[in-house]
């Protein structure tokens, strides 16, 4: 059976990591059995979570893991997509994972001390003191460097959140008349979207882009129905807390 290595659950959502939430959602959407090993990324491949172990090998990076799962366990989610829909899925994935994700990371790691403390408690809850504070400080410096390297971290906060609102508005518009991003059936891009959006809407850190996202009923309803359908044991997300 596949072992999914990820952060401990927090905040009444599948995972406080967007990519851990994405991968576990994909596994549930695809009906692939797995077990969870809660861990931190200290010894993970590439130094990041999630990663999986399957048939004696470790695989990292959620994109590469999903490609592996599709090749070895079948492609029950994306096999019905047209070439045009596949192109749309790739574009949405890039917007979500390579732009809006970084806006959310800025909100958690750099936008105000209260947000950072909430984030630190969730991510590093498995470590004892004083190691928790030491490791958290090291990762704070690492993420700050990543934000600057990506470019988001070099902008004023007002500009960052304005860019994030544009992303949120685009996804909300796409979901106005759909159950899922590409129609009435889920596809792997919905795992990506849910992982990012649930961590924006139901993560207890504050930001102007979160405030705006909470006004978009299409996004709130989308996250609610995915969590209720695929993670019923967690109950309804606590939006806005």
Automatic annotation (TrEMBL):
The protein's matches in Pfam families, at most eight in alphabetical order, are given as: GST_C_6, GST_N_4
Q: Membrane-spanning residues where?
A: none
All copies of the GST N-terminal domain together span 1-77
Q: Where would one find the signal peptide in this protein? A: none
Q: Which PROSITE patterns match?
A: GST_NTER
Q: Please give the name of this protein.
A: Glutathione S-transferase family protein
